[in-house]
Write a structure and sequence with these properties.
Two copies of one chain form a homodimer. The first copy, chain A, is built from four helices and ten strands. Chain A is of the alpha+beta class. The interface of A and B includes residues 2, 6 and 86 of A. The structure holds a DNA duplex.
Chain lengths: ~220, ~220
Amino acid sequence: MNTKQFCYWHPHPAVTTDIVLFTLRAEKLQLLLIRRRNPPFQGGWALPGGFLDMDEDLADCAKRELEEETGIKNIYLEQLYTFGKAKRDPRERVISVAYYALIASDRITLKPASDATEAAWFAFDELPELAFDHREIVEKAHERLVAKLDYSTIAFQFMPKQFTLSELQNVYETIRAEALDKRNFRKWILARNLVEATGLERRNGSHRPAQLFHFKRPGRVEIIR
Amino acid sequence: MNTKQFCYWHPHPAVTTDIVLFTLRAEKLQLLLIRRRNPPFQGGWALPGGFLDMDEDLADCAKRELEEETGIKNIYLEQLYTFGKAKRDPRERVISVAYYALIASDRITLKPASDATEAAWFAFDELPELAFDHREIVEKAHERLVAKLDYSTIAFQFMPKQFTLSELQNVYETIRAEALDKRNFRKWILARNLVEATGLERRNGSHRPAQLFHFKRPGRVEIIR
DNA sequence: TATTGTTAGTGTCTCAACTACACTAATATC
DNA sequence: GATATTAGTGTAGTTGAGACACTAACAATA
């Protein structure tokens, strides 16, 4: 155990980042939780995250923690909100800068559980009890996700490189938890000039094959309207 | 000088809040700056703000610092973003949770400057050099303000209790830096059912007097569409 | 008291975008 | 070849935004 201490003239809070990582699996919005190995809330589920290193930027901390705990990297990440109620952590004052992140359904394989970490996907509407104020963080992330669906290309972060328009529509329907009209959806997405046909098609059962599309400007999330 | 030290097993950053306080004065968007009394950036201008107390919530810290430095309280305050680049403060690692705030033009009187503080209003488009990364914080606050004009009742926070529709239109025009059509603006605001006539009028020069309106649900900022 | 200058206040038409809505096309399976 | 299943397409109606010009009411002044 390290016996060195870090001393300051004024009290300092600890600073962590926590990450709400969403994906779509099995036609459901899911998110990633980590089982806590230590008190408080030992054995309970919590968001991935951890303490900020003194020389790393906040977003880097979130990326590092996520990779350490799950092996996942190179994903879309955005700062969500900072949670800092005085008693949110029973140990000491902890300020948590929360991020939310999205990952395509073809990249959700986690690294195997180890002594240090056990991670698992949970359906958003069937979450277990969460440690600390993580429930509140999850709610806020969900709000943001739903809002951004309408005015940004954030939904594309859930998609693999190629996809059918029905699959894309499904993403919108799942997250917004409502059915959309097929013709209107296609008109809407095509009018925005965000996707183009690849010329390929997907045969996927005993029915007409679907055209495969890809995003014209992958990677970046744009504001649309 | 206090000689007591606060010691931790791991290094901790300092946490501050900074506040971007907007108002409208003289038909211009203005914001409040504080002259720094101490290094670094001694004598330069910076956002009001300061270190978090260990037992106060983040928003309370922002309110307290603002009141200490300006005497202003009871205003609309919203968390903006958390700035935490590793080198943003030359002294030590400092995480700043930035808030932005709006105040009505009839409440902008500051408490007199003291040895401890000198505060002043600056036009948004004529800001001096700012300390730290405060320029970046201001830009982000401005972006948020302009965006929220369209889909929330945030503009009402700039208004006194009673106001004319022309005055309200002026607020929108000033912040968006563009002229709006009077008839369309009135149609838009009235269709949203946010204001109602008080029956009073304002006589204000050698021309037709204007009806005074007030907000139906003052205080809260709502999402509109 | 008539004229002038100034701001308050009002309605219509056009266009673009969204909504609702139903059938044919292409495939695999049996 | 009959069936089941998903892909793919167009039109009409409605709604909201933008462009646009004149009258109303007052104070000041001649």
